[in-house]
Amino acid sequence: MKWVMVNPHLGPVLGGIQKDMLCLAREFITQGDRVAFVTTYDEFPEGRVDLSRPLTYELPPGLEVVRLEGHFRSRLRGFHPANPPLWLPGLARAALQFKPDTVIFFNIGWPLTILPAIVALRRKTIVLYRTAYHAHDNSHPLDPLRRRLQLRVAGLSHRLLTYSCFEKTQIIQQGGVPPERIVPVYPGVDLVEPSGQQVAAFRSAHDLNGKVVTSHVARLSAFKGTDRLIRVLPEIRRRTGRDVVLLLVGRNVEEAYLVGLARELGCEAHVRFTGPLSERDLHLVYAASDIFALPSQYESFGFVFLEAMAHGVPAIGVRTGGVPEVIREGETGFILDSHEDIAALTDRLVCLVLDETLRSRLGAEAREWTRQQFNWSATANAVKQVVEELKR
Q: What is the count of structural domains for the chain?
């Protein structure tokens, strides 16, 4: 089969949506299919992709990438939260040059840009939409209108592929897309086992030896709960008497605030800001971790939970989006009822820091759960099944 995957951004560092796209493409190519990416020259949240910078990941052999030049970049008060160009001429033509059996759009945050392309493409080929739909934000009076616009445009595709059953429920409640056209398809997770020597070298390089490591992989920000982890760190160290450190991995989009907060609380010596890391080094992060925590305000799914759990690391998340479909409460980690519950976050982290036996049991369950339920072969086959049903 021939696939074209369309996403507004593909820079040197992958976000969760881009990782889903890349891993799915890799699995399709492994199965003998042909895949092409169509994207832009724009970086998220701003700027242009520096093509001279080395990628932090590897593109699979045979993958073709087409970049289009866009115009008039604007978020339009949140109508385009992905911040792509408003006008992307030649998008449909770029996709059709590969004569695809299926075109998959990723990222629901650019409805006005892709509307003409979806209308043109759906007449000529099968069009799917991988949604990552966020319905949590009501900070602006126009947010309900934004969500309706996003779903109306995505709903022009033949099928919406959600990351979770929760996401499907949200879309149904919002209205405008028939339930039978919404198909939950879980992502997979890469199973990479670094050697003991590699992990030891990584721990030494980041001064982690003899410490209890709580990792956090995200776009570092208050939205992702990075500041809350920093705030609870002094109390966790005091209550446990253990040398607990935070390993904060990813682009620090609120650097002045987060670095300043660690300094203000007197715990900067126990916080490691690594910046973005390669896919290889991310596996080392998880392998070197004792606990993984991502107390986000919202996660449509939470791809990084899977990655950490696949390495046998118990995870802490918040009961939002598809997180309860990833973390099994009390079996593979813990789920907080609210991202604002600092006391619960502190208590769960203290419990895991002090109880090594519990960490090991939850970690072993997490590893087995992810390997059974989340693999890229199953994801690719589920997407292919959707396409085959549409062809009938």
A: 2
